[in-house]
Design a protein that fits this description.
Strand content: 5-15%
Order of helices and strands: EEHHHH
Shape: globular
Number of strands: 2
């Protein structure tokens, strides 16, 4: 299990997979249909799931601060599974990382953790 140790708690990849903020239409074989600066997020379901998760196990302040970092790690892990897709300059996971970076930690947390 991949995790990021924060203080005395562990924020796992499992938690990040529950709150996938990307549109369901964005997949490894459809990402080319989206412009590089397109809004590829859909936070509606992510916020509901994060709210339900926090009802049982609230995120600490540090976990909230690092949620975007752990989600990026999750996306990068996905890249490793499919690394042999080829040597290309642009691919789905790169678009996801770039979109997350443009959004930034503060906006990401606000949209997920309403």
């Amino acid at each position: 299990m991949i995790c990021l140790r924060i203080a005395k708690k562990t924020l796992t990849i499992r938690q990040t997979t529950l709150i996938d903020p990307f549109r369901t239409e964005l997949t490894w074989n459809t990402w080319q249909n989206f412009d590089s600066d397109a809004d590829i997020f859909d936070f509606a379901q992510s916020a509901v799931i994060a709210d339900a998760y926090q009802f049982v196990c609230p995120f600490s302040k540090l976990e909230k601060e690092h949620l975007l970092d752990v989600y990026k790690l999750y996306v990068l892990t996905d890249v490793l599974w499919f690394f042999e897709r080829g040597d290309v300059s642009d691919f789905c996971e790169r678009r996801k990382i770039e979109a997350l970076s443009r959004l930034g930690q503060a906006k990401f947390s606000r949209r997920i953790l309403q």
